[in-house]
Amino acid sequence: MKATVLAALVLAVAAPVHAEVDLTPPASATKAEGLDAWNRIYEVASHPRCANCHTGPSDRPMWSGPSYGQPRPHGMNIQAGESRIGAEYVLCQTCHTTKDEDWENANAVPHAAPRVAAFWQLAPVEAHWFGRSSVEICQQLRDPEQNGDRDMMELAEHLDHDVILHWAWAPGGNREPAPYSLQEHVTDILIWGTAGFPCPES
User: Fold this and answer.
1) How confident is the model at residue 4 (pLDDT cuts 50, 70, 90)?
2) Torsion sign, CA atoms 7, 12, 16, 19
3) Is the pLDDT reported for residue 16 higher than 80?
4) Region for 197 from its dihedrals, namely left if φ exceeds 0, alpha if ψ lies in -120 to 50, beta otherwise
5) How many Å apart are CA 164 and CA 161, to the nearest integer?
6) DSSP state letter for 178
7) Are 83 and 125 in contact (CB under 8 A)?
8) Dihedral sign, CA of 10, 13, 19, 24?
């Protein structure tokens, strides 16, 4: 089963608990505004809260960020396999459990495995962001063959509905959150798309 299909299945059974997000695109946006929005999008995409699980063809999630020192593969020889959820080895949800009645405090314990109300998993292979440049990620994210065949609104809606992505802005446990906010990130996606998905020059 392809990872993108599997991702849709596991998220369909998740409890979608999240704040309301405004998905209204701007009436217009210039190329300069689109590039400014892209620069902020790249700050989010390349941040450890996002990039650590966007490892492309590698099935090894990464540990990186201020508390880890040098970037390194996830400890305990964790491998997500072709399933991207660890079905061939040890399921990601073995530690990243989905069982919690108090989601407001589910990630309050430092150094404990993060938890969300969905099965933890690596991003699809096509979404290869870890260690990649702004130009490379920009070209990937605007390419339907690499972004799950999503247009601007579908990219924004994906951010609105995926509770694992929401965790990046409220990771708890003294973890550094992704920059800006979920709403600001969605707004930047809409500005970037309205401007025609401009990418920086290589």
Assistant:
1) very low
2) positive
3) no
4) left
5) 9
6) P
7) no
8) positive
